Amino acid sequence: MRTCEFNYVLPSELISQQPLQDRDQSRMMVVSRNKKTIEHSTISHLSEYLTAGDLLVTNDTKVVPARLFGQKINTKGRVEILLLEELETGIWDVLLRASRRPSEGSHMVFAGGDIKATLLKEGERGRAKVYLKTARPLFDILCEYGLSPVPPYIRRDETDIEQRNVDLDRYQTVFAKEWGAVAAPTAGLHFTHGLLKSLEKKGISQTSLTLHVGLGTFRPITTEQIEQHKMETERYSLSNTSSRSIRVTQQKQNRVVAVGSTTVRTLESIGRQYGKTRPAKGRTNLFVYPPYSFNVVDAMLTNFHLPQSTLLIMVCAFGGKPLMMQAYEEAIKERYRFYSYGDCMLIL
Asked: How far apart are CA 254 and CA 51, in angstroms?
């Protein structure tokens, strides 16, 4: 299929720049695949669309404040890095930006001098491998100096301390536990502890998995045909306890409700590899696109995604392209808030 078939035109004012004051007041479009209907609600009414015995599966990855600004030691030129993954002790895979890209062997300094970096090797599309030397534990420094890696369509002034604190809190789910993501599993941002308790009282069980969101989730498609796109790998794990909860739900013929595309990709990756849901840990580069037969996920809660993105294409594989593109047209007409800090869609 051609990538351009998944395009739509979004008015820029619908790209949400700030989170709502209350997480659980986000609007929620409800789409029925069987009935081909579209309803409008809010996430606070999620329990009305689920039934006792359904299992909510969330991604408990925790976003690292991994965006840092610094300077090159020799020229004092400005440089920015986004830490992606530690490959071995002190050696990191990063995205690097500078007005004039430093050469291999160049030295940089970040976090008021607490982090000294050496560029070891240039990569493709902004990637680089760097060695970091720190004066104290790296995560302590990141929590003090790092910025949440909100996407570039969310405009930020890195000197705005108040905004930094807002993003550190709100670009993180309330159930985040495992450090490792460089982007939030945004469908989870709508939940509060109160909403989770109300679902539990109704008999809707909850469990979690971990997928550390990385470049695989937000890299744009640059190929004309979607089948030619190659996903970056991302780390995941599913515990024995969570695996058992999913299998019991399936045996009782209740629904597995995935919160977010990252949860969908993890569950489907495991099901595809092993033929069933089982405890697993590894890396996935699964790209879900039409036609695709879903083996684990019965319903999905997801945000509204960028045109021609892997996330929109996954949603179209799950809900059917005609219905999903109709839903996006309806969302624009009804002035829904789009993207990471935006509203959400429940696909049943």
From this structure: 9
